[in-house]
Amino acid sequence: MNIQRVLKKYHDIETDLLLSYVLGKPKEFLYLNPTTRLNTAQQKKLLALIKRRQAGEPIAYILGYKYFYGLKFKVNRQVLIPRPETEWLVDRAVHLFPFVTAVTKGNKPFRILDLGTGSGCIAISIAKELQRVDYGRQIVGSDISTSALRVAKANAQTHGVNVTFVQSDLFKDVPGKFDIITANLPYVPQGMYELLYNNLKYEPKVAITDGGEVWEMYYRFFAQLPKYLKPSGLGLLEIDDGSKPDLQKMLKKLLPEWKTTFTKDLGGLWRYLEIKSPFR
C-alpha cells in the first residue's frame, strides 16, 4: 500500500496527520512522494491508529501532542486537551502585563499564577511571551493532579521556560500573593458532562466538571481570591456560557467592590471573566 492509496481510502486531514506520524515525515512529504510504499509494520501501525480515531479517541492523545498559542505541547490522558478558545487567557495576560506592572511599579517580583495548569499550556505560553520583557517575575502553575504536573514540567523543559509547579487543590498549597491569576477551572455542569460523555470520556473528568450543577468550584475560587490576589491585581477565567447569571450573583455577594467584566468568544458565547481587585 502506498501513500496515494492510503489518502484516497481514508481521505481527511486527520489521516494526513496519522500517516505523517507513522512515517515520521512532514505532511508535505506525503504529497511530494505519493508512490512511497508503507512497509508491513507501518501499515499495521497506521490501521491501528485509524481504528482508535474511528472509536472516538481524540487525535491529540493518539499523536501525543497538541499545538497551543503556536507552541507544541505534550499531552496524554492525564491532562485536558488545550482548546483554541483558551488562548484568550494568554492574550489577555500578556496584553495587561505592562498596565499591571505600571500600577505595581517597584513591587518585584511580578507574580503570575495559573491555577489548574494541566499541561502547563497557559503558564508556559505566558512565560514564553514575556521572555523578551526585562522585568523580574515569577510564574507558578498549580494543579491537584501529580500526573498532570509531570506533563507540565516536561513541557516547560521542552520550551526552555522557568515556571514553578505546585501541587494544590485550588489555592490550598499555593504560597504568597499574585499580580495576575489565570484559571480554566472544571466548569462543565455534571448534567451536561453526562450528555457529552462520549465526546469527553477520554479526558480527565476532574479537569472538566466538579460533579455539581451549582458552580461550587467558582464559589470556592471567588471566596479565596482576596487572600491571593494583590491590590489592583487581575483574575482571568474561562467560564461556562450558562454560568454568567449565577456568577454575577456570587460576585455581588463575595466581591462586591471588585470590578468584573464578562466577554464573549468568537462564537458569541459568554466565555471569559476578568476580575480586578480594588486598589488599597
What class would the helix/strand composition place it in? Answer: alpha/beta
What's the total helix number?
Answer: 12
Rg, rounded, reads 21 Å
Principal-axes geometry comes out as: globular
Q: How many angstroms separate the termini?
A: 70 Å
Q: Can you count the beta strands?
A: 9
Overall mean pLDDT score? 91
**How would you sum up the major sheet?**
7 strands, mixed
Low-confidence stretches: none
Task: Bin the strand percentage.
Answer: 15-25%
Q: Could you describe the 3D structure shown?
A:
This protein is about 40% helix and about 20% strand. The protein has 12 helices and 9 strands. Strands 5-4-3-6-7-9-8 form a 7-stranded mixed β-sheet. Strand 8 and strand 9 form a beta hairpin. Helix 11 runs parallel beside helix 12.
Features:
single chain, 280 residues, alpha/beta, seven-stranded mixed beta sheet, two-stranded antiparallel ribbon, 12 helices, 9 strands, 42% helix
Condensed summary:
The protein has 280 residues and is of the alpha/beta class.
Layout: helices, strands, pairs:
Elements (H helix, E strand, L loop, with lengths): L2 H7 L3 H11 L3 H6 L7 H15 L4 H5 L1 E4 L2 E4 L12 H17 L6 E6 L5 H10 L6 E7 L2 H14 L4 E4 L10 E6 L6 H6 L1 H4 L15 H13 E10 L5 H11 L4 E6 L5 E7 L4
